[in-house]
Amino acid sequence: MQHDTHSEHAHHAHHEGHDGHTGHTHHEGHTHEGHKGHEGHAHSGHGAGKVSWRMAAQATLHCLTGCAIGEVLGMIIGTALGWGNMPTMVLAIVLAFFFGYSLTLRGVLKAGVDFRTAFRVALAADTLSIAVMEIIDNGVIALWPNAMDAHLDDLLFWGALAASLVIAFFLTTPVNKWMIGRGKGHAVVHQYHH
């Protein structure tokens, strides 16, 4: 009788263990799914102290690439068409945003995301970064003596443009570091690179 009780107890414990294991598996699945759903939230909650300058610099370099393509193309088109400084600068800024967003869109679309979602991600990731970069970049060129009137074959044109982009890079990097640390800016894109 004692043996039977022990056997029943063992069977009951095994059954509970089995149920516990099943519950545990379900719990693990729930935790994992929950983690996936709140990945960005978790990152923003814990990322503030963990964002490296290297990560921020890479995000800024990404934006700078698009900005530089747009800036140079806009200046070339505006100058070639004989436009004045203001329309040329506006075109350069529009193209800087266009190419900046395009580079991010390309990366996010590769992850299999639909265009509307990818576009929202690009807007969230790049808008502030590109805006800050463009303000600094164009501000430097506007304040640089004779830079606005320099032509494409003039060393001053390329020198002022290069210097403005470098200054914009160094001043925008802390902005990107701050945004990524709060789960914004390029932090939004990170989940699509895995």
Characterise this structure.
By secondary structure, the protein is mostly helical. Helix 5 crosses helix 6.
End-to-end CA span: 59 Å
Q: Name the helix and strand elements from N-terminus to C-terminus, one letter apiece.
A: HHHHHHH
Number of helices: 7
Spatial extent as radius of gyration: 27 Å
| Major sheet details | none
Overall mean confidence score, pLDDT: 75
| Count of beta strands | 0
Instruction: Please identify the structural class as seen in this structure.
Output: mainly alpha
Report helical residue fraction. over 70%
Low-confidence region ranges: 1-48
Strand residue content:
under 5%
State the shape: globular
What topology emerges from the helices and strands here?
Layout lengths: L1 H36 L1 H8 L6 H28 L4 H26 L4 H29 L11 H27 L5 H4 L4
Helix pairs in contact: 3-4, 3-5, 3-6, 4-5, 5-6
Q: Which descriptors apply to this entry?
A:
mainly alpha, single chain, disordered N terminus, 7 helices, 194 residues
Briefly characterize the structure.
With 194 residues, this protein is mainly α.
